[in-house]
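ok new one. same drill as before - C-alpha coordinates go in, u give me an amino acid for every spot. 123 of them this time. try not to just spam alanines like last time pls lmao
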Protein backbone atom coordinates (compact mmCIF):
# COMPACT_ATOMS: atom_id res chain seq x y z
CA UNK A 1 0.00 0.00 0.00
CA UNK A 2 1.18 3.48 -0.82
CA UNK A 3 2.47 5.38 2.19
CA UNK A 4 1.49 8.89 1.06
CA UNK A 5 -1.57 10.72 2.33
CA UNK A 6 -3.01 12.06 -0.90
CA UNK A 7 -5.56 14.84 -1.31
CA UNK A 8 -8.15 12.25 -2.38
CA UNK A 9 -7.74 10.58 1.04
CA UNK A 10 -8.55 13.76 2.96
CA UNK A 11 -12.12 14.76 3.72
CA UNK A 12 -12.50 18.38 2.59
CA UNK A 13 -16.03 18.87 1.24
CA UNK A 14 -18.21 20.78 3.71
CA UNK A 15 -21.30 18.76 2.76
CA UNK A 16 -19.54 15.44 3.41
CA UNK A 17 -18.10 16.69 6.72
CA UNK A 18 -21.57 17.75 7.86
CA UNK A 19 -22.93 14.34 6.82
CA UNK A 20 -20.18 12.63 8.86
CA UNK A 21 -21.12 14.59 11.98
CA UNK A 22 -24.88 14.16 11.46
CA UNK A 23 -25.15 10.51 10.41
CA UNK A 24 -21.88 8.93 11.55
CA UNK A 25 -21.33 6.72 14.57
CA UNK A 26 -18.64 7.64 17.08
CA UNK A 27 -16.55 6.36 19.94
CA UNK A 28 -14.02 7.90 22.28
CA UNK A 29 -10.54 6.47 22.74
CA UNK A 30 -8.24 8.93 24.48
CA UNK A 31 -6.87 11.23 23.03
CA UNK A 32 -9.21 10.90 20.03
CA UNK A 33 -12.90 11.10 19.39
CA UNK A 34 -13.40 8.97 16.29
CA UNK A 35 -16.33 9.36 13.87
CA UNK A 36 -17.18 6.78 11.22
CA UNK A 37 -19.62 6.91 8.32
CA UNK A 38 -19.90 3.71 6.32
CA UNK A 39 -19.13 3.90 2.61
CA UNK A 40 -21.65 3.19 -0.14
CA UNK A 41 -22.30 -0.52 -0.89
CA UNK A 42 -20.14 -1.90 -3.68
CA UNK A 43 -17.85 1.13 -3.66
CA UNK A 44 -14.19 0.19 -3.40
CA UNK A 45 -12.95 3.76 -3.07
CA UNK A 46 -10.34 5.03 -0.68
CA UNK A 47 -11.21 5.94 2.88
CA UNK A 48 -11.37 9.67 3.49
CA UNK A 49 -10.18 11.09 6.78
CA UNK A 50 -10.70 14.38 8.60
CA UNK A 51 -8.25 15.67 11.23
CA UNK A 52 -9.49 18.22 13.73
CA UNK A 53 -8.14 19.90 16.86
CA UNK A 54 -10.35 21.97 19.16
CA UNK A 55 -9.73 25.70 19.22
CA UNK A 56 -11.15 25.71 22.74
CA UNK A 57 -8.48 23.23 23.91
CA UNK A 58 -5.48 24.70 22.02
CA UNK A 59 -5.78 28.45 21.50
CA UNK A 60 -2.93 29.16 19.08
CA UNK A 61 -3.16 28.07 15.45
CA UNK A 62 0.50 27.04 15.45
CA UNK A 63 -0.21 24.59 18.27
CA UNK A 64 -3.27 23.17 16.50
CA UNK A 65 -1.33 22.75 13.25
CA UNK A 66 1.51 21.04 15.12
CA UNK A 67 -0.89 18.49 16.63
CA UNK A 68 -2.57 17.92 13.24
CA UNK A 69 0.81 17.23 11.61
CA UNK A 70 1.52 14.60 14.26
CA UNK A 71 -1.93 13.06 13.78
CA UNK A 72 -1.52 12.94 9.99
CA UNK A 73 1.89 11.29 10.26
CA UNK A 74 0.65 8.68 12.75
CA UNK A 75 -2.33 7.95 10.47
CA UNK A 76 -0.17 7.83 7.33
CA UNK A 77 2.22 5.31 8.87
CA UNK A 78 -0.58 3.03 10.08
CA UNK A 79 -3.38 3.45 7.53
CA UNK A 80 -2.64 0.01 6.10
CA UNK A 81 -4.46 -1.43 9.15
CA UNK A 82 -7.77 -0.28 7.62
CA UNK A 83 -9.59 -1.97 4.75
CA UNK A 84 -10.48 0.31 1.87
CA UNK A 85 -14.16 0.82 1.23
CA UNK A 86 -14.93 4.48 0.76
CA UNK A 87 -15.60 5.09 4.46
CA UNK A 88 -15.47 8.58 5.93
CA UNK A 89 -13.45 8.89 9.13
CA UNK A 90 -13.13 11.82 11.50
CA UNK A 91 -10.31 12.01 14.04
CA UNK A 92 -10.83 14.77 16.60
CA UNK A 93 -7.99 15.39 19.06
CA UNK A 94 -9.13 16.07 22.62
CA UNK A 95 -5.96 15.16 24.52
CA UNK A 96 -3.04 16.96 26.12
CA UNK A 97 -1.44 19.64 23.88
CA UNK A 98 2.01 18.54 25.09
CA UNK A 99 1.58 14.95 23.83
CA UNK A 100 4.63 13.74 21.89
CA UNK A 101 4.55 11.71 18.70
CA UNK A 102 5.90 8.66 20.52
CA UNK A 103 2.86 8.82 22.84
CA UNK A 104 0.39 9.58 20.06
CA UNK A 105 1.32 6.85 17.56
CA UNK A 106 0.39 3.84 19.79
CA UNK A 107 -2.92 5.56 20.60
CA UNK A 108 -3.55 6.04 16.86
CA UNK A 109 -2.86 2.32 16.29
CA UNK A 110 -5.42 1.44 18.98
CA UNK A 111 -7.97 3.82 17.46
CA UNK A 112 -7.43 2.38 13.95
CA UNK A 113 -7.71 -1.18 15.28
CA UNK A 114 -11.03 -0.36 16.97
CA UNK A 115 -12.15 1.48 13.83
CA UNK A 116 -11.44 -1.63 11.72
CA UNK A 117 -13.53 -3.72 14.14
CA UNK A 118 -16.40 -1.23 13.85
CA UNK A 119 -16.15 -1.27 10.04
CA UNK A 120 -16.49 -5.05 9.94
CA UNK A 121 -19.53 -4.87 12.28
CA UNK A 122 -21.26 -2.39 9.96
CA UNK A 123 -20.92 -4.69 6.95
Amino acid sequence: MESRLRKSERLCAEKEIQELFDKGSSFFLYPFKVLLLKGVEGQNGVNQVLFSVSKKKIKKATGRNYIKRRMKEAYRLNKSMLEQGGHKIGLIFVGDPEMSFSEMEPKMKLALHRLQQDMTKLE
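The two ends are 23 Å apart (CA to CA). and btw The first strand starts at residue 25 and ends at 29.
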